Amino acid sequence: MQTQKFSTWPENGFLKWLPTILMMIIPLGIMAMLVKISPDINKQSHGFNRNFITQEPTLLKKIPVGKLSKYIAGVTPTDVYFSSMKPGQIERLELNTGNYSSIMVVTNPVLQKRLSASCQAEINGPYVRLFDSPSGLMITGNRLTHKMEVHQSPELFTRFVSISPEKVFLRKFVNGEKDQSFYKYDLQTEQFYGKMKITDNKTDGGLSTDGELVFDHVNGTLAYVEHNSNRITLFDTSGQVLKVSHSIDTFATNLFQTNKFGYQTDGIITNNAPVQFVNQSASFENGILYVQSGVRSDNQNLIDFNEAVVIDRYDGKDGTYIGSFQLKGVKDGIRNWVVRDQKLYLLSNSRLSIYSL
Amino acid sequence: MSIQKTAISTCKNLLVMLFLYTAISKLLNYSETVLQMEKSPFITQYAYLLSWGMPVLEIIIAILLIVDKTRLYGFYASLFLMVLFTAYVFAMMHYSYYLPCSCGGILSLLTWTQHLWVNVFFIFVALTGTIFEKMNHADTKVFHVA
Fold it and tell me: Which spans are transmembrane here (chain A) (predicted)?
């Protein structure tokens, strides 16, 4: 028997390339099926329409930011500050020059070690405030005097906002209750005041009633915008509820399934499903409450909605819906956004985009 | 070494590096991988299975690519996986209400758009490897002649 080696290439025939073609077609079919069967409230109609304002926000500029920027912590006429990926630090972007720098707020290494990766910053005038939910630490630094004060909340908090240099509103856990409540905290006397129950007690540690706590510095009004239902509660700095309102969608009840909590290996409770928020984030400025919605209206198509950041505007006094606008092509890598002085500042992975409203 | 063999070797090395790197990253950051996969609307129900199944599959494909006799199957599997990953990224960008990150290591620093282009590049690598390996197989096919 003789063994001979010879080439059969090129060989005609579709069959030869069939495996290669199948390796490209089958995955597309699998993905199409997964998209088809995946849960998404926006695949259905919800019986409401948005009124889009005729003039879309104008992009004023895009400025590259450093990789350490996590969330927008504050805006001044000359700078934008960010919470940093490094605990105890904030990041600053000079708007005119584009210069980017890091500022170490907490220099004490022992204190630094207590801060977690979820530590968030807030800038108000000369004050830099760091909130660290897991440790319950509230650290206030003064950028002018370089003085620093450290306060410890006895219970962990999840939401916070400064209403003055000395006073803070917090949403925190309460000993013996499977829920969270709102309190005003006086940093000078280190006392909590006026327990407020503005969310329903679902006995799940307040997770299903989580939301955004925002403050309108101009009018002295606070708003709590729930993530998982359309409830918006407006209240003043004394803790008096002004109005319980709703976003324009039709989700009065929570989409959140409380029996779907997962447990990470480090013991932190989290959601084990992709939670589809009714209202994703909010900003409160000069009597207007801006809410980023997670619910498609009937006059929007699904793909356009998923690719855009859709923001609804409400009257800050009574929660009346005013109108909506959308920012297209910015959703990829979005971290957060705030509205200040008729401008919208949007932070994504590598840049800050500024829009005129 | 012929151009054909150089192309096969380059494609194989690129894919082996990619799969081993992402597999090890996913396994080293297992809890984070599970968490991010759970938050992906399309794969949330299969997150636990995929969080260990995907890195294991990537390692198996890397081995198939390394072993001469199984290389063609390795390229087929690479092509399958890269098209699947790319379709997933595309679907996430256009059809998902939430954009988590479920990739490991340095790839997690990429935006979804950049991720899409990286995947397209690796589809090209896998396809090139598959075509040349197929040609190589045909070239070296041994026939026994009586």
Answer: 14-35
- The residue with tokens 């002018």 is A144
Q: Which residue has the tokens 């909506």?
A: A324
**Chain B environment of A44 (Cβ under 8 Å):** none
SS (H, E, C) B21-60: HHHHHHHHCHHHHHHHHHCCCCCHHHHHHHHHHHHHHHHH
State whether A67 and B109 contact (CB < 8 Å): yes
Host domain of residue B20 = 3-137
Mean per-residue pLDDT, A84-102: 92
Q: Which two tokens stand for residue A97?
A: 């020059």
Of the candidates B51, B52, B38, the one whose C-alpha atom is nearest the C-alpha of residue A262 is: B38
Q: Mind listing the domains of chain A with CATH numbers?
A: 43-356 (2.130.10.10)
Residue A206: both structure tokens together: 């307040």
User: Which residues of chain B neighbour A276 with C-beta distances below 8 Å?
Assistant: 41, 97-98
pLDDT above 60 (res B101): no
What ipTM, to 2 d.p.?
0.89
